[in-house]
């Protein structure tokens, strides 16, 4: 069993997908802490409804490392081993990343390294791509950059707008994020430089 913490800033649908998979026994993990940097985040209310240890830790107007140290304190209090970023709209400081080396996962709605950063689905459409997708990766010091655990492609259809493409991608995010967390929790991945290999 791995102790997993979730960091989020918004609606929390990826958090719910992870929580469902864990509660259904498909991932050998327990969610020990949920943190939001946004007070009214729907994901935070959903975490409270599910009975998880949850905290709102404000980030606005605060120094990045000061905020990160407070989050790490909360995670340590609950013996966190792995961290899942689930729509967490802040870059982590080197301090935070070094506290959980190769132990932080993120999900991004594009096939990285294409279209890092905000509005990845709109960036995909603006480029005229015929294939979109999503990526679960380990987090390092750079934005949407660390070694890739899983990726899955999604077609771009004629007439798509950011909303229609985003919802098609989101359904696949809800599949690959639990799959990636399962691999991590079962110690079934090996990282060599940028390359992540799956172990049997
Ligand atoms: C998802 O599209 C995820 O890929 C991105 O932020 C969005 C979060 O959605 N990092 P939700 O809060 O999990 O519903």
Structural summary, described in words:
Helix content is 36%, strand content 26%. With 200 residues, the protein is of the alpha/beta class. It has a seven-stranded mixed β-sheet with strand order 3-2-1-4-5-6-7, sandwiched between helices. A two-stranded antiparallel ribbon has the order 8-9. Strand 4, helix 4 (94-99) and strand 5 (104-108) form a beta-alpha-beta unit. The longest helix has 24 residues, at 162-185. The two termini are 18 Å apart. It has helices at 13-23, 42-49, 64-77, 94-99, 120-127, 162-185, and strands spanning 2-8, 29-36, 54-56, 82-85, 104-108, 131-138, 148-155, 189-192, 195-198. It contains six helices and nine strands. The relative contact order is 0.16. 5-O-phosphono-beta-D-ribofuranosylamine binds at residues 8, 10-14, 43, 86-87, 107-109, 170, 173.
Q: Would you list the SSEs in sequence order as H and E?
A: EHEHEHEHEHEEHEE
How many β-strand runs?
9
- Number of DSSP helices? 6
Shape: globular
Radius of gyration: 16 Å
Largest sheet: 7 strands, mixed
Distance between the termini: 18 Å
The helix content, as a percent range, equals 25-40%
- Widest sheet, order of strands: 3-2-1-4-5-6-7
Beta-sheet strand percentage? 25-35%
Name the quaternary structure.
single chain
What low-confidence regions span 5 or more consecutive residues with pLDDT below 50?
none
């Amino acid at each position: 069993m791995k102790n997993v913490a979730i960091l989020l800033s918004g609606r929390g649908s990826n958090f719910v997908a992870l929580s469902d998979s864990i509660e259904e026994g498909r991932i050998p993990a327990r969610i020990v802490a949920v943190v939001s940097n946004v007070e009214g985040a729907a994901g935070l209310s959903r975490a409270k409804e599910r009975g998880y240890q949850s905290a709102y830790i404000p980030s606005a107007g605060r120094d990045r490392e000061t905020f990160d140290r407070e989050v790490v304190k909360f995670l340590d209090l609950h013996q966190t081993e792995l961290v899942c970023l689930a729509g967490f709209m802040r870059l982590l400081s080197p301090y935070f990343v070094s506290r959980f080396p190769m132990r932080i996962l993120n999900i991004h709605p594009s096939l990285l390294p294409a279209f890092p950063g905000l509005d990845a689905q709109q960036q995909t459409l603006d480029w005229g791509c015929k294939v979109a997708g999503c990526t679960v990766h380990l987090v390092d010091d750079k934005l949407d950059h660390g070694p890739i655990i899983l990726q899955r492609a999604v077609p771009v259809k004629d007439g798509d707008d950011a909303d229609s493409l985003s919802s098609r991608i989101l359904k696949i995010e809800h599949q690959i994020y639990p799959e990636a967390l399962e691999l991590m929790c079962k110690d079934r991945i090996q990282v060599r430089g940028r390359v992540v290999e799956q172990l049997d």
